[in-house]
From TrEMBL:
It comes from Shewanella cutis. Gene3D superfamilies: 1.20.1050.10, Glutaredoxin. PROSITE patterns: GST_CTER, GST_NTER. Belongs to the GST superfamily. This is Glutathione S-transferase N-terminal domain-containing protein. InterPro entries: Glutathione-S-Trfase_C-like, Glutathione-S-Trfase_C_sf, Glutathione_S-Trfase, Glutathione_S-Trfase_N, GST_C, Thioredoxin-like_sf. It holds the Pfam family GST_C. Residues 86-216 form the GST C-terminal domain. Residues 1-83 form the GST N-terminal domain. SUPFAM superfamilies: GST C-terminal domain-like (SSF47616), Thioredoxin-like (SSF52833).
Amino acid sequence: MIDLYTAATPNGFKISIALEEMGLDYRVHKLDFSTNEQKQPEFLAINPNGRIPAIIDRDNDDFVVFESGAILLYLAEKTGQFLPADPKKRSQVIQWLMFQMSGVGPMMGQANVFYRYFPEKIPAAIERYQKEGRRLFEVMDTQLAKHQYLAGDEYTIADIATWPWVRIHEWSGINMVGLPHLQHWLDELAQRPACQKGIVTPPPAVMTDEERAKQIQKMVTK
């Protein structure tokens, strides 16, 4: 049994998708950002960085893993799924996973902050992160013109990590015009049952975009 500590965010959805894809039993513990539950001592004992997601593997001496990329690697190695054994193919998957971790997630995250949440609109910051997000989309489109999936012709944890972010491109203000291969990949993964289940685990809070922006604005300006 895996205990998953998470919230309804792209980083959280990565792990719920992976757990669904891998067929692992898991329990969801949804953290409430509005009350800073992720900063409380109980959760800091699991993840000292105070961020979701984190897991506890109850079948492996209550082993704790935090950071979404590290969790994906751990689960792939635990199950032998979505990470090739061949050293070169394995490296390709890890390269694209790191591409998401160091590029797509941070750039789109900052685009979200300045485009949606920050109380003061700073055009230069918005343009910077949206342009970089678009550039990264173009890199993926070029790769997907040659391969069905990001790391080659196999669906892997690199796709699982990246899809929850790319699917919210409109929220980040990043357009998909002229990126047919990336759009095809986005649509194809949206048909996978595990992706469909993963992006509602945990269920998003029922609120308007304006209410959501105000709630997250409080967090990013503290």
